[in-house]
Amino acid sequence: MADIGQKQAVGGRSLPRRSHVTHNGQGVPAGAAAIVTALADAGTTVLFGLPGGGPNLDVVGAAALAGLRFVLARTETAAVIMAATCADLTGLPGAAVVTRGPGLASAVNGIAHAALDRLPVVVIADTVRLADAGRISHQRLDQAALGAVVARAVVTIGRDRTAAAAAAAVRLALMPPAGPVVALMDDSGISDPGGAPGPERPGRASDDGGPRDVVILAQALRRSRRPVIMLGTGAIAHTAAIRSALAGRGIPALHTYRARGIVPDSTAEAAGLVTGGTMEWPLLAAADVIVGLGVDEAEMIPAAWDYAAPVLLVAGYPPSRPGSAYFPGATALDIPLSAAIGVLANRHGEHDWPPGVGQIARTQSALGLSEAAAARPGFLSPVQVVRVVRSHVPRETVVTVDAGAHMLAVMPLWEVTEPRRLLISSGLATMGFALPAAIAAALCAPARLVVAFTGDGGLGMTLAEIETAARLRLRIAVVVFNDGALSLIKIKQRPAGQGGAEAVDFGPVSYARAAEAMGAVAVAVSTEKELAAALSAASGRDGPTVIDVRLDPAGYPAIMDLSRGEAGRRPVPGLPGPGPRAAIVNVTAGTPDASAATVRSIQCRLPWRNSRMSPRAPSPASSRSANVRPCRA
User: Helix or strand or coil: residue 414?
Assistant: First the structure.
């Protein structure tokens, strides 16, 4: 046993360290002290979780002694999503504490979300101790195997080398591409760092890049007449450089869901979304080269990629395989993103895109969505909800979006000026994301209103977290698209052979009444005026406000067709037609004046016109929101 007087410094404080103790509240076990030390040294300030007894509570106690805050969640998956969102907003490792057996099993969905969105999270889990494994079967699972399915690594923090094992867990989580690590606490076992590399091992391509790959990219851009840039999450850290490289160049930039805001929507180059659907078809079908910066294949929906233009991909870290499975025939370039952006910045020469091509493409897409079916009396349409909320909250508002049919309206229509202000589960696309993510975002920026867009299906999965938000008095507006169905699945459901209404329809639920029972202020709305009034009240209230919107889903099929169906494959006025080397430009785009007129004609019919979100000059470049800071302790 180590001397109880031995100290371990954490965040400027000293923790008593014991290598062997029974979990009776005396002292700080070495494993708990080690993992808290490693997290604190990396900048983590808050832990989320739903603890069991024993080692879980040792970690919570060690965190309290070190000045780290513990936030009690209602479910393990919600706790991990909260931790992942903190990591997303701050760039620091997130942390969650769960118990053994059902605790870790319940956390798997949250771990999978962090894995596919490449977010650094350490999930600290109890185990059945190795010393007791021969006798105890209750709650005993092969947790190492369970964690290995979804996490990038599983680390055991045992009775020896605790500090090294804990540091390895955090290092593995942060190593590009980042991801979740499960840390199993077992003070009777041998520490296992999970194959973590030494701290000196590089996690990205060399700063100089491969000369051959730099030349390939430079030649492709130099020869191109219609280049398109795809921006993914990995490019967010290079926001300022990308804005500088693209500003005034007239080269359209498409964003994945999580990359929104790298190029502000108010600029001429911001061309909307790229998801693997068809909304991006007008630009990609006309392109002669497509360059992906920081694009992760997990960000793309499972659809065919059938564009003729060659694709060059720069991930920013060594590619895991020579080619791309999602983008057939694509070339993965082993160069840093900074080098690729430098090549883009140095591209000189003319191109064949009409002036304002990005704005033309994006506003035309938005126009189609805004003209989807109107709501019947006494209900609101999805587009109406997005329009009213956008026009009644500040530009810098952080918004979280659940998976579901409503996201097809929110994601393209919500204007963004900075990265990480529009958050969604992209790789896993899990429901039940928006409310836990909003809780974490509100902790990271406590003075600002956070908006959570969720369907009734997603909210049903995380309803109890309304109590968490109320307990913490977090300023969150939870906007519920309440249409009594799994609407996205209902659109996909075939008329025969896939069940009927019983497979997709819920019974009526008043989420307003349920929220009130858990301590939130809540209101049911069915008009734009009622929705606007509810948002105005929510913005000045400490504590959550649940806005239960009576929604008409009639417009969803048209929105789905525009986003992922054949309606998205229609020529756009002002843009060239398909063909990687097409020489004919649409007659409406022949002059700068004609293109500008096209944009103005489209914008005058858009839902956000005459609102606070009218396009304006972009704010100063930054790779993170200047108003988001590490989660408060």
Answer: coil
Q: Give residue 605's Cα distance to chain centre.
A: 30
Tokens of 155: 């680390």
* The dihedral sign for the CA sequence 168, 170, 175, 176: positive
CB 109 within 8 A of CB 86: no
**Cis omega before residue 310 (within 30°)?**
no
Contact between residue 174 and residue 202 where contact means Cβ atoms under 8 Å apart: no
Structural element, H or E, at residue 548: strand 545-550
**Model pLDDT for residues 20-29, shown as the tens digit of each residue:** 333 444 578 8
Residue 617 pLDDT > 90? no
Q: Which residues contact 545 (CB under 8 A, 6 or more apart)?
A: 476, 477, 478, 520, 521, 522, 523, 534, 537, 538
Two tokens, residue 627: 């108003």
Strand ranges in 127-245 using DSSP code E only, listed in sequence order? 153-157, 180-185, 227-231
Q: Write out the two tokens for 448.
A: 């600002």
Buried-state track 373-393, b at ≥16 Cβ within 10 A, e below 16: bebeeebbbbbbbbbbbbbbb
Q: Residue 632: exposed, middle, or buried by beta-carbon count in 10 A (0-12, 13-18, 19+)? A: exposed
Q: How far does the chain reach from its first CA to its final CA, in angstroms?
A: 32
Phi, then psi, of 156 in degrees rounded to 5: -100, 125
**Cα(403)–Cα(457) distance, integer angstroms:** 9
Cβ neighbour number for residue 358 with a 10 Å cutoff:
26
Structure tokens at 422: 């529009």
Residue among 315, 307, 312, 314 nearest 330 (CA): 312
State the maximum Cα–Cα separation within the chain, in Å, rounded to a whole number.
82
Classified as helix, coil or strand, 583 is coil
Cβ–Cβ < 8 Å for 457, 429? no
Contact by Cβ (8 Å): 2, 19: yes
Residue 192 CA to residue 166 CA, distance in Å, equals 10
Residue 6 contacts residue 62 (beta carbons within 8 Å): no
Residue 297's nearest CA partner among 356, 344, 233 is 233
What does the H/E/C string look like for 471-496?
HHCCCEEEEEEECCECHHHHHHCCCC
* pLDDT tens digits, 346-397: 987 789 999 999 999 998 888 888 888 788 999 999 999 999 999 999 999 9
424 closest CA partner among 410, 416, 414, 434: 434
Q: In sequence order, which residues have a C-beta less than 8 Å from that of residue 271 and are 6 or more positions away? A: 228, 252, 253, 254, 280, 283, 357, 358, 359, 361, 362
Residue with tokens 């499975």: 325
3-state secondary structure of 511: helix
- DSSP H or E run through 456: helix 456-462
| Burial of 626 from C-beta contacts in 10 A (0-12 / 13-18 / 19+) | exposed
3-state helix, strand, coil in the chain (%, to 5): 40, 15, 45
Worst-scoring range by mean pLDDT, 84-98, 174-188, 305-319?
305-319
Name the residue type at position 578. P
- SS3 per-residue string spanning 252-273: CEEECHHHCCCCCCCCCCEEEE
CB 216 within 8 A of CB 333: yes
pTM over 0.70: yes
Reduced to 3 states, what is the DSSP secondary structure of residue 549?
Answer: strand
CA geometry: angle 433, 369, 297, nearest 5 deg:
50
Residue 426: phi and psi, rounded to 5, are -95, -55
